[in-house]
Design goal:
The protein is of the alpha/beta class and 212 residues long. The protein contains 8 helices and 12 strands. The longest helix is centred in the middle third of the chain and has 14 residues. It is elongated, with a radius of gyration of 19 Å. It starts with a strand and ends with a strand. The model has no long low-confidence stretch (mean pLDDT 90).
């Protein structure tokens, strides 16, 4: 199922968006501000963000710009009451894939969502890196058409790396996903997983780990 994160501070509209998207087969998760969104992105790697530009505390397009600068390559549709040409251009420059002005018709939004997902070729929950293919639905890993057996914790760990291919992950992020509190256990977990995947995870001194 395709996952869409919605960031909209108008609670009535947020509930309507969540309901409409869920009724149309999407896994829709709503937020009224950006505080918990980054954690959600790290853990769930949503396929699309729908972001209101006028958010409390931070301007929506600046939040998206920061995400893009940090290496999160997630398609974005902006919701806005601003129809000014300069505002729209600014939104695209900060990372928008599409723009829809309020008030809007839900059918139009659904059509724009389909168009953005199609442009990004987002159809299935399989994440690939080099010749490795991680199937999130069936919880399997394959390499050169050969299945590789992973424990549940190894799968969660590899999923974290595959969802953040352009980032260096901190030990704290890894410990949270594995539900451990000992940094030495991180080294053990990485080494065991690397043994199964030809060492494609490398250490970044003083920072954490990343894919080669």
């Amino acid at each position: 199922m395709i996952t869409i994160a919605i960031i909209e501070d108008e609670e009535d509209l947020l509930e309507l968006l969540e309901f409409t998207l869920q009724q149309n087969g999407y896994d829709a998760v709503g937020f009224t501000n950006t505080k918990k969104v980054k954690d959600f992105i790290i853990e769930e790697n949503p396929d699309l963000l729908i972001v209101d530009r006028n958010l409390p505390g931070v301007e929506g397009s600046m939040f998206v710009k920061e995400l893009k600068q940090e290496g999160y390559d997630i398609p974005v549709i902006f919701l806005t009451a601003k129809a000014d040409e300069d505002d729209i251009i600014e939104g695209f420059e900060r990372g928008a894939d599409d723009y829809i002005t309020k008030p809007f018709n839900m059918k139009e939004l659904l059509a724009r969502i389909k168009a953005v997902l199609k442009r990004h070729n987002i159809t299935a929950k399989v994440i690939s890196y080099k010749d490795y293919h991680l199937d999130l639905q069936n919880r399997t890993l394959s390499h050169d058409s050969v299945n590789i057996t992973l424990t549940p914790s190894e799968f969660r760990l590899l999923e974290l790396f595959f969802k953040n291919q352009k980032r260096t992950l901190s030990r704290e992020e890894i410990m949270e996903v594995l539900d451990i509190s000992n940094e030495k256990s991180v080294n053990v977990a990485i080494n065991r997983l690397n043994h199964k995947i030809n060492g494609i995870i490398q250490s970044v001194r003083g920072v954490g780990y990343k894919l080669k």
